[in-house]
Amino acid sequence: MTEMDELRRAMRATERADGLDIADIMRRGRRLRRRRRIGAGVAAAVATIAVAVGVDAVATRPGPPDLPAGEPVATASTGTPPPTPTAAPAPTESPLRPLGTVVDSGIRYGADARVFFMVPVDVPELPRVTIGLVAGRRAPDGHLTSDFLVNDVSGSDRRAGFHEIGYDQQRVPTDTSIPTFGYFVGPAARIVGTVDGRQVEAKLARWSEDPEVVIFWFDPETLTPGTPLDGIIARDPQGHRL
Amino acid sequence: MARGDAEFVEFARASSARLTHAAFLMTGNHHHAEDAAQTALVRTYASWSRIRNGDPYGYARSVLVNHLVDTWRRPIREYPSDDLPERRGGDMAEEVATRRWLVTALGTLTARERAVVVLRHYFDLPEAQVARELDVSVGTVKSTSSRALEKLRTAGLSAPRPQETCR
Predict the structure, then answer these.
(1) Is the terminal CB of chain B with fewer CB neighbours within 10 Å at N or C?
(2) Which residues of B touch A161 (CB under 8 A)?
(3) How far apart are CA B109 and CA B158, in angstroms?
(4) Cβ burial B154-163 (10 Å sphere, 16+ → b, else e)
(5) Are residues A204 and A191 in contact, defined by beta-carbon separation less than 8 angstroms?
(6) Are residues B113 and B141 both part of a single domain?
(7) pLDDT digit string (tens) for B6-24?
(8) What is the number of structural domains in chain B?
């Protein structure tokens, strides 16, 4: 018997018949699904600068229909209860609007543009987390589609440093793969990621509502979407590490 | 309970032990393994309506592996030897010995090597599918698998054999 045969036998021989708490899994799955719907609900024809929508209004307005099959959607955390829509879906009404400018990444999917924008979020046990960053697409008519929402799951959304980073969850590249993205709070002039010993430079844009917030993303040509970073650093205009 | 929910419950009951064990093989820690398997099933359930008619097990497995790989990418990681699980019948000494050997053997491998070994030899996936799930080339899968095997050989590890029963 070869080493690999022995390993294979051992891997099977040590299987346990433990069961997980399926009711809890389904509760958490429902919360995650609602949260995705909220993130996906930022579909509206809007100008590039929008008015902030109150959190309470967000939490009680209708949710949008579910995302179409195959659309890459995920959140950075599954452990945080989302804002919960309380009414039936109403596709014609937009439950969320971008906060501040919508950042055009320059990445194109046919006629659609990859954009990033902040949205209000409401996490009951995290009063200092009020914004989340969406990776979305903007159609030529201005219609916005949300693909991915990330927000902090602890502390404050304005603490200095890096916050939750969004990765495309589809390992197989799609026509609308989501670039790795996130935001940094501080005077960052450069953001550099490391993956497999290689350094990749992020593209940056300051958020219109708070210049301390630096939205960044990695061009899919330099960092394959979904590839986890080994490390990431930010440097100030003088090149000092922040 | 909606039909989709009933289907998910059946799916989760059938797959949770195997997913948890795969996560244990990749982490060496039961608590981390259960967390990872739960996370995979939570995400699977959240997407159930669009994946239930496809390959939900493949989806859950892929989420599990990616979740663990992401965890390994974080700056601090460890491969602790785990406390041994409670025994539920059978030959305790033999399973304990096998489990200890397994943890030691897999502990000599890197995270990527463990992932390749588990996907190839526990899930029995073809190399091309392992490559897709880990977002690496088939060549990388081959070389990583070969390197893992060489490490096991070099370590001179030998799995404890099942004991013969003498009458």
Answers:
(1) C
(2) none
(3) 15
(4) eeebebbeee
(5) yes
(6) yes
(7) 899 999 999 999 999 999 8
(8) 2
